[in-house]
Amino acid sequence: MLKEWAKFKGFSAKNLPKEEPFAPGHRACQGCGEVLALRLALKALGMNVIAISATGCMEIISSPFPYTSWRVPWLHVAFENAAAVASGVEAALRALKRKGRFPRNRRVDVVAFAGDGGTADIGLQALSGALERGHDLVYICLDNEAYMNTGVQRSGCTPYGAMTTTSPPGKKSIGQMTWKKNVPAIAAAHGIPYVATATPAFFLDLMNKVKKAALVEGPAYVHIYSPCPTGWGTKGEDSITLAKLAVETRIFPLYEVIEGKYYITRKITKPKPVEEYLKRQRRFRHLTEEEIRKIQARVDAEYERLLRLAECL
Predict the structure, then answer these.
(1) Pick the CATH number of 3-312 from 3.90.1310.10, 3.40.50.1010, 3.40.50.970, 3.40.50.300
(2) What pairs with residue 138 in β-bridges?
(3) Dist. CA 228–CA 244, nearest whole Å
(4) Which of 101, 129, 140, 184 is the most buried (most CB within 10 A)?
(5) Which pTM was predicted?
(6) pLDDT (tens digit per residue) in 285-309
(7) How far apart are CA 214 and CA 226, in angstroms?
(8) In sequence order, what are the residues at sequence separation of 6 or more whose Cβ sits closer than 8 angstroms to the Cβ of residue 270?
(9) Which residues pair with 74 in a beta bridge?
(10) CA 96 to CA 271: how far, in whole Å?
């Protein structure tokens, strides 16, 4: 199942693709980590791709009529059905090849992009169905941890304690009251060939994982951490710093799940305290020392669980 992936030697700083499927001149906010993640993912995939994009920030900033930043075939679809439409596109390609109406040996990668809201919440049913049916596609979640495009409302991927417009802190609320939904684990539970986490702070790791996902036969899921200065209350120039800190504090571990086996791709043996990450963001400024200790304990426990999963090889 991983034959094509096994042949892939990986990108390096010296052999980066020159193609740019996503053009500059879009309308993303300054310091947007999501558009950087999107550009890197498409750069790894190349021009032989059909992209399906759910409603969200990346759709809004890339396609104000009559302009577009997409240099590859691109479908804008509803908030909740990127995975369903990608399933249909992949099935149509297979049918055309079977009928001799499309070259059998021509590789075209089908990739779906959606935010955390369109993935973890209203798009979860469509995603689960696509993974269960075994469609040969890549699904990429660009996770900025809230519904940013519609006004910074909380999503299932909003972290505990974060302030959003629908989870405001106050005398009777800490902000977001639930813990971040572990969508990569949900995807892996479907028994699909490949799952990975990534962040634009480690761009080669991101690009190599997206390319692996495309080369795997069957469904693949990549969850990309994407800083949002507007929704998080941060400086645009701090996005990459925050993306690194999320990994270095173990808040967002980098790993792969290949045919059910967990591999940590960047082990953090001397983690930085979560407070160093939290204090840089306005959405966490209301947190007390007690709440920060609670978050630290949760992060430590989740990383230990991940370590145990990776040891079960």
Answers:
(1) 3.40.50.970
(2) 111, 220
(3) 14
(4) 140
(5) 0.97
(6) 999 999 999 999 999 999 999 999 9
(7) 20
(8) none
(9) 51
(10) 51
